[in-house]
Design goal:
With 156 residues, this protein is mainly alpha-helical. It is 89% helix and 0% strand.
């Protein structure tokens, strides 16, 4: 490439960069601009537009495998948090799923509540709060995994 041609190409890319910035300023104030960008660039059947999109997204393609591996780890973490949260609320579920065991657990739970006093009530509140936090964290992680996979271009 010659010096003059390189300068013209750099000027063209600079102009494109400024145009993108201008469109993004408009997109922040008008939601219709986002739909128009999606229609004109992402959904375009024009070969040049598809090639341009591939150039822009090239760095994302390398991250898909990493995103999948990270998502698998996060899903495993979410499942452990879910099991821990449910196990703290209902300890008998981890040992036995029989209805009789669950009924006995709740009947013993009612009797013990009367004998615990204020300290025992505090322990129960902390226990319940911890289990709710674990379950909420698990669902939050699953939501973030879904968003990350969507951003990587995978349908969830």
């Amino acid at each position: 490439m010659q010096k003059g041609e390189s300068d013209r190409l750099e000027d063209l890319v600079d102009k494109l960069s400024l145009d993108v910035k201008a469109v993004m300023l408009l997109a922040k104030t008008d939601p219709n601009v986002v739909e128009l960008i999606d229609k004109k660039i992402n959904q375009s059947v024009d070969g040049d537009m598809q090639d341009f999109r591939k150039i822009v997204q090239r760095s994302r393609d390398a991250k898909i495998l990493g995103s999948i591996l990270i998502s698998i780890g996060e899903i495993a973490l979410a499942s452990m948090l879910t099991i821990s949260g449910v196990g703290i609320i209902f300890p008998t579920i981890l040992g036995s799923l029989s209805p009789g065991a669950i009924v006995r657990y709740f009947s013993a739970f009612n009797v013990d509540l009367n004998n615990l006093g204020y300290g025992g009530s505090f322990v129960l509140i902390v226990n319940y709060s911890l289990s709710i936090i674990l379950l909420a964290s698990a669902f939050y992680i699953l939501r973030k995994v879904s968003e990350e996979l969507s951003e990587a271009g995978l349908r969830v």
